Amino acid sequence: ADAATPNFPAIQLLNDPQTFGEKLYDNLNRYDKRFSLDHKILMMQLLSRVMGSHKLCVLGFYTYIVKYLTYHQMRIPSILVALAQSVHDLTPPDALTPVVRKLAQEFVHPGVGSEVIAAGLNAIREVCRRQPWAMEEELLGDLVEYRKSRDKAVTAAARGLLQLFREVNPGMLKRRQRGKEASMGIASGSQPLPFGHSTDAAVDIEGLVVCITLRPESLL
Question: For position 210, what pLDDT does the model report?
Answer without folding.
Answer: 37
